[in-house]
């Protein structure tokens, strides 16, 4: 049996208002909650038991996923009353694992979309006989990430979490948020208090002489921390740029879910998703966007790289470009919202009230 811990307890503050009423892993991407894609890929790699480490809005997960049997995987839910950090969450969730001390446990973050070959990562962990194996990726600007230099054999040499000074940037290899732990290493993490795996656990293991192995992988990788990244991830899944068995349709320029209505002459492309019960009226144009269940895009509106929340309305001739519209908001006709504009849930904007908005 191969087991995994999936960290889904974060508040998703950077994704507000999408996460005001929905935990980040449950926000829809390519027609299903993002978590469904992670579970499907784990299952495809041979993982048969996943422990969900929940905290924020924990009550939302189980009604959708149940015991996991409908998704071909066994799920266990472990709830943190108070946030324990990444390391603390892993330790807290480990009570639901059955792996023995020397056996591998996969751990991954609930806000990363990747094309990583998970089965290969597990195999390379076994071959290296490592205490912990880390998935690493290379980025053009590593300042917002944890830097992980390695030697020629893949042995991790150091950790620098989000470097503050140029001389700290010693590599473009960053922590990609997926690990394989030997079970006894998880058991060594302090219990009952917040622990950062990045700032405390990994540096402590290095100092104690543990073998941490880094696997640098060049496959698709995207951190879904910002709304623009989340929308991009959904579009890339729809178009098949990164594949997921959970996408409810074949790759293409758009995904229209059952019960949605698309009017004559409306144009959908760029990986757009139209949710159940949503309406796209005649002459509207929607590119690379997520239109959630029950939303309405009215005649002549143009929506690009945006997310339109459940039950929201975008009025005639309104332009959205890189915007997030909260659930049940009303955007009147002839408005223009661009460059990261965010409209909170339930907000009403009158006709022609905003010609440009950026945050």
TrEMBL record:
Pfam families: GMPPB_C, NTP_transferase. This is GDP-mannose pyrophosphorylase. Residues 4-237 form the Nucleotidyl transferase domain. Belongs to the transferase hexapeptide repeat family. Residues 252-332 form the Mannose-1-phosphate guanyltransferase C-terminal domain. InterPro entries: GMPPB_C, Mannose-1P_guanyltransferase, NTP_transferase_dom, Nucleotide-diphossugar_trans.
């Amino acid at each position: 049996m191969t087991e995994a811990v999936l960290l889904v307890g974060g508040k998703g503050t950077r994704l507000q208002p999408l996460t005001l009423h929905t935990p980040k892993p449950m926000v829809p991407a390519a027609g299903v909650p993002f978590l469904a894609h992670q579970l499907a890929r784990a299952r495809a790699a041979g993982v048969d038991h996943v422990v969900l480490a929940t905290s924020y809005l924990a009550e939302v997960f189980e009604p959708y996923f149940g015991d996991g049997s409908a998704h071909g995987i066994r799920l266990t839910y472990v709830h943190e009353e108070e946030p324990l950090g990444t390391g603390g969450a892993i330790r807290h969730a480990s009570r639901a694992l059955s792996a023995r001390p020397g056996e591998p446990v996969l751990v991954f973050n609930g806000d990363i979309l990747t094309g990583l070959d998970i089965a290969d990562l597990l195999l390379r962990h076994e071959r290296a006989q490592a205490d912990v194996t880390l998935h690493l990726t290379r980025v053009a600007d590593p300042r917002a990430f944890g830097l992980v230099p390695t030697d020629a054999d893949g042995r991790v040499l150091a950790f620098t979490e989000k470097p503050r000074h140029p001389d700290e940037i010693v590599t473009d290899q960053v922590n990609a948020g997926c690990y394989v732990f030997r079970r006894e290493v998880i058991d060594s993490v302090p219990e009952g208090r917040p622990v950062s795996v990045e700032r405390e656990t990994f540096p402590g293991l290095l100092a104690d002489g543990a073998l941490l192995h880094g696997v640098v992988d060049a496959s698709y990788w995207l951190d879904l921390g910002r709304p623009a990244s989340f929308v991009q991830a959904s579009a890339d899944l729809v178009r098949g740029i990164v594949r997921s068995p959970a996408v409810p349709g074949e790759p293409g320029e758009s995904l229209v879910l059952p019960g949605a209505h698309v009017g004559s002459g409306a144009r959908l492309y760029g990986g757009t998703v139209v949710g159940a019960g949503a309406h796209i009226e005649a002459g509207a144009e929607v590119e690379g966007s997520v239109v959630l269940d029950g939303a309405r895009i009215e005649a002549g509106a143009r929506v690009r790289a945006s997310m339109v929340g459940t039950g929201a309305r975008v009025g005639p001739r309104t332009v959205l470009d890189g915007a997030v519209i909260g659930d049940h908001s009303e955007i009147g006709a002839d408005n223009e919202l661009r460059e990261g504009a965010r409209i909170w849930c339930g907000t009403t904007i009158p006709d022609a009230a905003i010609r440009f908005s950026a945050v």
